[in-house]
Automatic annotation (TrEMBL):
GO terms for molecular function: oxidoreductase activity. Keywords: Oxidoreductase. It holds the Pfam family Rossmann-like. The keyword Chloroplast does not apply. It comes from Acinetobacter venetianus (strain ATCC 31012 / DSM 23050 / BCRC 14357 / CCUG 45561 / CIP 110063 / KCTC 2702 / LMG 19082 / RAG-1). Residues 2-99 form the Putative oxidoreductase/dehydrogenase Rossmann-like domain. The lineage of its organism: Bacteria, Pseudomonadati, Pseudomonadota, Gammaproteobacteria, Moraxellales. It comes from the Bacteria. This is DUF2520 domain-containing protein. InterPro entries: 6-PGluconate_DH-like_C_sf, DUF2520, NAD(P)-bd_dom_sf, OxRdtase/DH_put_Rossmann_dom, TM1727-like_C_sf. Residues 126-250 form the DUF2520 domain.
C-alpha cells in the first residue's frame, strides 16, 4: 500500500516507522519542511510542505496532527487526493469531521501514549478503526491487524468515551507522578523510592477493579492524616497542590462513604 503521512510529530513518526516495514511511505507532509525531511529520510519518502504537492496516486493518507487542525486540513487535502482513503488518528475527533469534505474517510486510532524517546510495543497496543464503507473498513482492519493483536471496530462515540477515560488513566495519572516528584524534590528525597509503589498500583489496577483496590487516608476517612497532608502543602506554599489534594481526597471519600 502507498501511504502518505500528514504530520511529522510523535504519532506520525511511530506510525511511519512501523508501516514502512510492509508498505511504501510515499510522502511526509509538514508545514515545517525540516520536520518533514527528518521523518522522510528515516522511511525513504519524499518530504513536502505544500498540500498541493500531494501525490494523487497515494492509496492511504493518514492525518496525524493536533485535533484542532484536522477539520481545516481535510478541506485542503481532499481536493488533491480525491480518490484516496483519508483517515485521522484522533481519539476524540468524530469521523464526520472528515466526511463533511471527503467521501472515503476513516479513523485509525492507536490507544497509546507516544514519545520520541521510547519505542512502542505495537502488538499489544489497541487499535480502533472506523470507515464510511465496508470495503475501506476491511482495508483499515487488515492494516491494523498487521500491527496489533488488539483491533476493534468502534464508533466515534465509543472512541471519544475511551479517549476521555484515557486522559484520566494516562495524562492525569502522569501528572500525579509529576506532582509527587515536585513534593519529594523540594525536600531532596529520592523519587526512585516511589517506583515499587507506582508499579504495584498499576499492576493492581490492571488486574482488578480499581475501585476495590483503593487505599489511603481518604478511603479510610482519616481526617487527621488528610489535615496534616494539606497543612504540609500549605506551609510549603503549594496552594495549587493542596487544592488538587482536597478535590481528589473528597472524590475518593465520597466514592467509598456515600452509600
Amino acid at each position: 500500500m502507498r501511504i502518505t503521512l500528514i504530520g511529522a510529530g510523535r504519532v506520525a513518526n511511530h506510525l511511519a516507522l512501523v508501516l514502512e516495514k510492509k508498505h511504501r511511505i510515499v510522502q511526509v507532509f509538514s508545514r515545517d519542511k525540516q520536520n518533514a525531511q527528518n521523518l522522510a529520510d528515516r522511511v525513504n519518502a519524499e518530504a513536502i510542505n505544500q498540500i498541493e504537492q500531494l501525490n494523487r496516486q497515494t492509496d492511504l493518507v493518514i492525518i496525524a496532527v493536533s485535533d484542532q487542525a484536522i477539520s481545516e486540513l481535510i478541506k485542503n487535502v481532499s481536493q488533491y487526493v480525491p480518490d484516496s482513503l483519508i483517515v485521522h488518528t484522533s481519539g476524540s475527533t468524530s469521523l464526520s469531521v472528515l466526511t463533511e469534505s471527503h467521501l472515503r474517510a476513516g479513523v485509525f486510532y492507536p490507544l497509546q501514549t507516544f514519545s520520541f524517546e521510547r519505542e512502542v510495543n505495537w502488538s499489544d497496543t489497541p487499535l480502533f478503526v472506523e470507515a464510511t464503507n465496508t470495503q475501506d473498513l476491511n482495508v483499515l482492519t487488515e492494516l491494523a491487524n498487521e500491527l496489533s493483536d488488539c483491533v476493534y471496530q468502534y464508533s466515534s462515540k465509543q472512541r471519544q468515551t475511551l479517549h476521555l477515560a484515557a486522559v484520566f488513566a494516562c495524562n492525569f495519572s502522569n501528572y500525579c507522578y509529576d506532582m509527587a516528584k515536585q513534593i519529594v524534590d523540594a525536600e531532596s528525597v529520592d523519587f526512585n523510592l516511589l517506583f515499587p509503589l507506582i508499579m504495584e498500583t498499576a499492576n493492581k489496577a490492571t488486574q482488578n477493579d480499581p475501585q476495590k483496590m483503593q487505599t489511603g487516608p481518604a478511603m479510610r476517612g482519616d481526617q487527621n492524616i488528610l489535615s496534616k497532608h494539606r497543612n504540609l502543602l500549605i506551609n510549603a506554599h503549594r496552594a495549587d497542590l493542596e487544592n488538587i489534594y482536597k478535590i481528589m481526597s473528597d472524590g475518593i471519600f465520597n466514592t467509598h462513604h456515600s452509600k
